UniProtKB/TrEMBL annotation:
One of its GO terms (molecular function) is DNA-binding transcription factor activity. GO terms for biological process: DNA-templated transcription initiation. It comes from Chryseobacterium polytrichastri. Gene3D superfamilies: 1.10.1740.10. SUPFAM superfamilies: Sigma2 domain of RNA polymerase sigma factors. This is Sigma-70 region 2.
C-alpha cells in the first residue's frame, strides 16, 4: 500500500531534517526544489553560471535560517521561493547589475536587467 504524504507532513519532515542538520534534509530539499529554483534563477540570472551560484546561495540561506520557517504560515515551497527572490536581488546587486523586479503577471515574476 502506498502511503500518501500531504504537503504539511512533507514540510514538517523536511523542516525537522534540516533543523537537525541531517544530510538527508539537504538531499530532500534539493530533490524537492532544485529544478524549480534553477529554472527561476536562470531566467533571472541570464546565465548558467549565475543561476548555479544563486541556487547554491539560496540553499545555504534556507539551511542556515531554517528556524525562520517555523514562524511562517505558508508552505515550505513558498518560503524557499521567497528566499530565492531575496537571494537573486542580493546577488544581482553584488554584481552591480541594475534590474527591475516585475510581478505584472503574478505569480510569474521576472528580473529585467537595465543596460
Amino acid at each position: 500500500m502506498i502511503k500518501k504524504i500531504s504537503n504539511i507532513e512533507l514540510d514538517t519532515d523536511l523542516f525537522l531534517l534540516i533543523k537537525d542538520n541531517k544530510k538527508a534534509g539537504l538531499d530532500k530539499l534539493y530533490e524537492c526544489y532544485g529544478c524549480t529554483l534553477y529554472g527561476l534563477a536562470i531566467r533571472a540570472g541570464h546565465s548558467q553560471e549565475y543561476a548555479e551560484e544563486i541556487v547554491k546561495l539560496t540553499f545555504f540561506k534556507v539551511w542556515n535560517h531554517i528556524d525562520l520557517f517555523k514562524n511562517q504560515n505558508n508552505s515550505m515551497c513558498i518560503w524557499v521561493i521567497q528566499n530565492l527572490i531575496l537571494t537573486i536581488k542580493e546577488f544581482l546587486s553584488s554584481k552591480n547589475i541594475s534590474y527591475h523586479f516585475k510581478t505584472d503577471n503574478f505569480p510569474d515574476f521576472s528580473f529585467e536587467w537595465i543596460e
